[in-house]
């Protein structure tokens, strides 16, 4: 197939030339649809990463002194450039990840949405906040927000532009520098994002991109950082959290999920099926928040199952740089395709039934797979407890809401959940019982994730901390307590005994509680 005209060899070479690499060699970055090499991606050594942090830190010292208004002007211009150059960004995302063009486009919309939100919130969040001191009138305390320094961002391959850039936006706005390590497979779109940021006025060197396999360069990325933002597997998140803890730095970890969808007995089946199709096949199932388990009320089970299978079988699968040609794109790689198929094969071998799909599609491309619906999946199967991370879902018939909630919560994960019912109040009450950091009512995942004003993260083994909301920016800052005392009064005054001072203090504490002076 023909590569988009925007992705010339000269353009791609210019992007990867930003990656510091002295003796790290190169990695063949391929077009997923065809397996053809797009460009040789330089690989960074630990020494390269140490130097990248030094350059980012030098630039950050100046950047942190810019007035906030001046910093935010850069992001207003960047927002404009993102919209102007959207087609090129979509081309890059598609070529490196293999996702359908519709999904690639939707990914590119995330960064402008995050920028818009924090352009409005940052002035209030980063402003000094005056609080009362311990002694009324003559003391005060001011909460001052200061940037942490340089933030290490480790981004996954499934949404390279959205996570790589969106997680960096509030960090930069707060006055930090950033060192980003994207996955080798999907480094091009974030590299272009940094190029556009510098065109918008970001100081050169402030935002560094380093590349390499995680085991080789990950420790250096963590060790150089003042804070780490990671999106990826729970297993890797544990390693990063442990290392960050040893370094006494904070981290935010958005990890895996085995996300449930509950279809109540009063659900609008047509709408629920439509939502389920997206929840299962969005980004070909390679979404941390996508749906892998469905618990369906017995009274609507057969109708829902039959309509879901029919809807999935109508989807078109293929490789195209056109919006309207295919519904589903490729998985990220042949290795990942084989991993997803192993979950299906294991389930079938242990008694599960394939209602539709379950096959690779080498006739379409190297890493394509059909959307798959399974029945009879149990917890002794890989697909029953482990994150499959592909367009595969298991259906379960349930006799009551209590049973559905119990089964939905029977997992170590807790990232996302979905509840469907016409009675929104009832569905919401069910949603409150689910152990997940994000719960969508009459939607599968987009409403929660797109609500940038509300924190989004996982519970249990699905993560620590959150992106979005006020804490999505404040986590990249240190709160400094600047306290002022105009006159020394804390302690016995003059000839006052300590016993008399203690009695006076107790009386003062009683008055403060009643008069709201504290």
Keyword list:
3 domains, 518 residues, alpha/beta, 20 strands, Aldehyde Dehydrogenase, Chain A, domain 2, 19 helices, Aldehyde Dehydrogenase, Chain A, domain 1, 7-stranded mixed β-sheet, globular, 19% strand, 6-stranded mixed β-sheet
Which helices and strands, and how do they pair?
Blueprint: H1 9-16, E1 26-30, E2 37-42, H2 46-63, H3 68-84, H4 86-97, H5 101-126, E3 129-132, E4 139-147, E5 150-154, H6 160-166, H7 168-173, E6 177-181, H8 188-199, E7 207-209, H9 214-224, E8 227-231, H10 234-246, E9 250-254, E10 259-263, H11 269-281, E11 291-297, H12 298-314, H13 334-349, E12 353-356, E13 372-375, H14 382-385, E14 392-398, H15 401-408, E15 416-420, H16 424-431, E16 438-441, H17 446-450, E17 456-457, E18 463-464, E19 466-467, H18 471-474, E20 477-485, H19 498-515
Parallel strand pairs: 5-6, 5-8, 6-7, 8-9, 10-11, 10-15, 11-14, 13-14, 15-16
Antiparallel strand pairs: 1-2, 3-4, 4-20, 9-18, 12-13, 17-19
Helix pairs in contact: 2-9, 3-5, 3-8, 4-5, 4-8, 5-6, 6-8, 11-12
């Amino acid at each position: 197939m023909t590569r988009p005209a925007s992705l010339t060899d000269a353009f791609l070479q210019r992007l990867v030339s930003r990656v510091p690499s002295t003796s790290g060699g190169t990695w063949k970055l391929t077009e997923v649809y065809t397996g053809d090499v797009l460009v040789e991606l330089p690989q960074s050594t630990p020494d390269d990463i140490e130097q990248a942090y030094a350059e980012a830190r030098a630039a950050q010292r100046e950047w942190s002194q810019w007035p906030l208004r001046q910093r935010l002007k850069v992001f207003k211009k960047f927002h404009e450039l993102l919209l102007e150059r959207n087609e090129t960004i979509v081309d890059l995302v598609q070529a490196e990840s293999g996702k359908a063009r519709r999904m690639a486009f939707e990914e590119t919309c995330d960064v402008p949405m995050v920028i818009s939100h924090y352009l409005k919130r940052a002035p209030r969040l980063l402003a000094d906040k005056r609080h009362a001191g311990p002694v009324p009138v003559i003391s005060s305390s001011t909460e001052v927000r200061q940037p942490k320094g340089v933030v290490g961002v480790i981004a996954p391959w499934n949404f390279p532009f959205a996570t790589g850039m969106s997680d960096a936006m509030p960090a930069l706005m707060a006055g930090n520098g950033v060192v980003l390590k994207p996955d080798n497979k999907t480094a091009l779109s974030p590299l272009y994002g940094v190029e556009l940021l510098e065109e918008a006025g970001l100081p050169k060197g402030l935002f560094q991109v380093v590349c390499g396999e995680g085991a080789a360069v990950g420790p250096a990325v963590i060790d150089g950082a003042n804070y780490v933002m990671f999106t990826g597997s729970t297993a890797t998140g544990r390693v990063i959290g442990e290392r960050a803890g040893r370094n006494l730095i904070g981290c935010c970890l958005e990890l895996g999920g085995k996300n449930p969808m509950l279809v109540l007995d009063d659900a609008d089946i047509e709408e629920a099926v439509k939502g389920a199709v997206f929840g299962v096949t969005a980004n070909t199932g390679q979404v941390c928040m996508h749906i892998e388990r469905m618990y369906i009320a017995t009274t609507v089970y057969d109708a829902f199952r039959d309509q879901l299978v029919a809807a999935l079988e109508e989807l078109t699968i293929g490789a195209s740089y056109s919006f309207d040609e295919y519904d589903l794109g490729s998985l990220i790689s042949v290795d990942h395709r084989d991993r997803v198929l192993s979950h299906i094969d294991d389930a079938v071998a242990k008694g599960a039934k394939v209602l539709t799909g379950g096959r690779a599609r080498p006739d379409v491309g190297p890493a394509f797979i059909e959307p798959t619906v399974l029945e009879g999946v149990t917890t002794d199967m890989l697909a029953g407890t482990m994150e499959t991370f592909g367009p595969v879902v298991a259906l379960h018939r349930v006799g009551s809401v209590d049973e559905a909630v119990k089964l939905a919560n029977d997992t170590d994960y807790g990232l996302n959940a979905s509840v469907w019912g016409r009675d929104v109040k009832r569905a919401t009450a069910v949603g409150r019982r689910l152990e997940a950091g994000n719960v969508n009512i009459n939607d599968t995942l987009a409403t929660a994730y797109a609500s940038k004003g509300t924190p989004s993260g996982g519970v249990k083994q699905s993560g620590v901390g959150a992106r979005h909301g006020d804490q999505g920016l404040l986590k990249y800052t240190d709160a400094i307590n600047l306290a002022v005392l105009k006159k020394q009064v804390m302690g016995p005054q003059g000839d006052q005994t300590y016993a008399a001072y203690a009695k006076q203090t107790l009386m003062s504490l009683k008055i403060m509680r009643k008069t709201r002076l504290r």
